[in-house]
Amino acid sequence: MGAYFSEIFLGLKSLFIGLGITFKEFFKPVVTVAYPYQTIKMSERYRGHIELIEDEEGNPKCVVCGMCERGCPSGCISLASESVEYEVEVKGEMKTKKKKVLTKYDLNFTTCSLCGQCVESCNFGAIKFSKEYNLASSRKEDFHFDLLNRLKERNS
Amino acid sequence: MSGPIHIRPDETFTLNVGPQHPATHGVLRVKMEMDGEYIVKAETVLGYIHRMHELMGENRTYPQVLPNLSRLDYLGALGYTHGHVLAVERAAGIEVPERAEYIRAITVELNRIASHLFWFGAFVMDLGGFTPLMYAIEDREYILDMLEAVTGSRLTYCYYRFGGLYNDVDDDFIAAAKAFIPRMRKSLKKYDALVTGNIIFRKRLEDIGPISAEMCRKYGATGPVARGAGIDFDVRKNEPYSVYPEFDFDVPVYHECDSLARYKVRMDEMEQSLRIVEQGLEKLPDGPIMPKKAPKLIKPPAGDYYQAVETARGSFGIRIVSDGTKNAYRFKLRSPTYSNMSLFDEACEGMMIMDALAMMGSLDLVIPEIDR
Ligand code: SF4
Ligand code: SF4
């Protein structure tokens, strides 16, 4: 009999302790964000999909060394380049030289694991992470980014 | 179908729990042969989301496998990458600066708390209580914010590098971590009053779901499951790695072998992790976070290497057989949940299904880590 009542008493006690805690929490300020209307600032090091960096003239800094393409574990970067001839003056003489120019920088974001190997392996500081995270679509084609095009659009 | 189903009193039926079941925290199927509400026999069926991480480790270079390791266990990802970098560093003989080691220990422990917090919430939810999950997620969010600020991602971190770290921590992180410790201690007290003292919770777990030390040894269970069965084993203490010998912390061990013991081990572990973080922040030395001559191309000399670390779920081992090339010849992972799960079949025999699910919750399963 005594055990029966003490059990009821214990049950009631733990019920009131629990209710007390939830009651206290009820008056705490709200911590959630009303997402589509409010957004939070992304942290400094947030990793979105990668983006090309431009030089002063607005051209990509990339020299098409291919390190990022080779370093990527998921194989989501594909590059293409063509070599163009250009003239430089060396000791008063005009000489033609060749250099590679980026013609295509495609990122297949559907398989990217945002590991950061590409940005790390680039010795020329030509790519960075963007801060974009509002990427939602039901079509996977929307995640094939033409980064060169994006760069041009940014500049225009 | 029409008409009621008649089951003869002596007849058993098969019940499929999963593959997509809220109590299994992932894609796990348990085929249960039931006699009414009692389990006669259970059979765990794995492999629904197998992703061949081990094979990928063999046909990719060492740095390329780094992001994979954090995909094993999305709740305590840093512990797994820690194991990988330690294994490769030992194999290739790479020195790690002290500051990097400390930051690793701090971030791993924070990640362990985050993992335990989420487990705590999900476990109580398995038993029917929803509110604690919300409180746990709020606390966990502080850790995720801190870790995001240093690593750049929220769950599947790829932060450690062979020889050090991707980038250094800043003063903001240190301040945030210092402010987090008293907050978390207060929260732990709150959880104690709200959940541990709750009579319904205790009655659901006390003396239910026995997993003995003998069974743990038989199946190779480690981590909180083994420590809840009275086995005093923690890789951080027994086979120290990194800077763990520098820290003063205890290994919580309970001898009751029931679901409540495993719960208590994890709750105490959070407190111990807080202690480690506190000491780590105090002792954090200045200096570089990468060695001066960090090798770009990693080619460990031919040999067989093994490294174990203590993750939130138990002992995670990584074995690398190198033939001196830039990718591993054999890459084998020993993940803790796999062994913890294997004992479930035997342990749940003769139990009521609700108790068995509570026991499953107390094992702290993360299925991607089994189906790696
Ligand atoms: S972040 Fe990683 S997976 Fe993504 S493109 Fe760069 S290297 Fe490839
Ligand atoms: S590593 Fe840098 S410079 Fe080389 S191809 Fe990639 S983006 Fe261009």
TrEMBL record, chain A:
Question: What keywords were assigned to this record?
Answer: 4Fe-4S, Cell membrane, Iron, Iron-sulfur, Membrane, Metal-binding, NAD, Oxidoreductase, Quinone, Repeat, Translocase, Ubiquinone
* A GO cellular-component term linked to this record: membrane
Q: Which PROSITE patterns match?
A: 4FE4S_FER_1, 4FE4S_FER_2
The reply on keyword Iron-sulfur is yes
Q: Where is the 4Fe-4S ferredoxin-type domain?
A: 48-82, 103-132
In alphabetical order, the GO MF annotations are: 4 iron, 4 sulfur cluster binding; metal ion binding; oxidoreductase activity, acting on NAD(P)H; quinone binding
Top enzyme class: oxidoreductase
Question: What EC number(s) does the entry state?
Answer: 1.6.5.3
Protein name stated in the entry: NADH:ubiquinone oxidoreductase chain I-like protein
* Species: Desulfocapsa sulfexigens (strain DSM 10523 / SB164P1)
Species lineage, top-down? Bacteria, Pseudomonadati, Thermodesulfobacteriota, Desulfobulbia, Desulfobulbales
UniProtKB/TrEMBL annotation, chain B:
Q: Which GO terms describe its cellular component?
A: plasma membrane
Where it mainly occurs, coarsely classed, is membrane
- The keyword Transport belongs to this UniProt entry's keyword annotation: yes
UniProt topology in membrane? Peripheral membrane protein
| Reaction catalyzed | a quinone + NADH + 5 H(+)(in) = a quinol + NAD(+) + 4 H(+)(out)
- Record-annotated NADH-quinone oxidoreductase subunit D domain positions: 126-295, 298-372
Q: Which GO terms describe its molecular function?
A: NAD binding; NADH dehydrogenase (quinone) (non-electrogenic) activity; quinone binding
- Which Gene3D superfamilies does the UniProt entry name for this protein? Cytochrome-c3 Hydrogenase, chain B (1.10.645.10)
Can you say what this protein is called? NADH-quinone oxidoreductase subunit D
Q: Which Pfam families match?
A: Complex1_49kDa (PF00346)
Q: Which UniProt keywords apply?
A: Cell inner membrane, Cell membrane, Membrane, NAD, Oxidoreductase, Quinone, Translocase, Transport, Ubiquinone
| Cell location | Cell inner membrane; Cell membrane
**Which family, according to the similarity comment?**
Belongs to the complex I 49 kDa subunit family.
The gene for this chain is: nuoD
Described by its record, this protein's role is as follows:
NDH-1 shuttles electrons from NADH, via FMN and iron-sulfur (Fe-S) centers, to quinones in the respiratory chain. The immediate electron acceptor for the enzyme in this species is believed to be ubiquinone. Couples the redox reaction to proton translocation (for every two electrons transferred, four hydrogen ions are translocated across the cytoplasmic membrane), and thus conserves the redox energy in a proton gradient.
Whom does it interact with, and what assembly results?
Answer: NDH-1 is composed of 14 different subunits. Subunits NuoB, C, D, E, F, and G constitute the peripheral sector of the complex.
Which EC number(s) are documented for this chain? 7.1.1.-
